[in-house]
# Entry
Amino acid sequence: MKQSNEGIFQRYARQIIVPQVGLAGQEKLLKSKVVIVGCGGLGCTIGQILARTGVGELFLCDSDKVELDNLHRQILYDEKDLGKAKAVLSAEKLLQINSQVKCHALPIRIDEKNVVDLINQSDLIVDATDNLASRYMLNTAATQIGRDWIYGGCVGTEGTVMLVRNRTGACLECLFGPYDAAEQNPPGKFPILPTTPVVVGAIEAHEVIRYLLTNDEDKPSGSKVISIDLWQSRVRSSNSLAKNPGCDRCGKK
# Structure
């Protein structure tokens, strides 16, 4: 993906003049690789923003197909896409947005056999799933190999984003406790307003961009959580969350 500095500046001119980005930062984004696990409400927003921002390589992972009740919130798709594989569609549509980005369609469901490979082939893995089992699987794998990742979840008008700093900060289980299958909503049954995944996905994408542009020595030592309630117009943020020593997943044994 070789582009002249002039070509880069033309496409990304408005973000290159952001002090936190600059031409050097844009070149760093163009060399970055990100895995997005889930191409639904969150993934559609995350994928669009990262493609438009110029993140060089995107791995799009989802085993589902587009259904009618997806269309009110999954903003990459329309009626002609019904029945088609989300991962393949996402790759096609993101390439129409930015042909300079490499998009890899992975129409698979993550499992214990493939999740570590997904994490290892990227600079960062982003959760855009709609189920607790997959999120805790990501947490387990990332904790085992000491890799950072970004969690995102939403229901109704509320959502949470977490930058998980696995070597130095709290993991998902530190914050929410062990996985409990009884807490999992039936597939497709949870309430959701379409604005919620767009806002939560945008926050996740912003945290990806910030993470990729920040030198390791300047990254926070602890994990970070952002919680929103759109109906109440409320945003809360907690920074530098340390590990829970009693956590069964990442605490001191």
In short: The chain is about 35% helix and 20% strand. The radius of gyration is 18 Å. The first helix runs from residue 5 to 16. The mean pLDDT is 93.
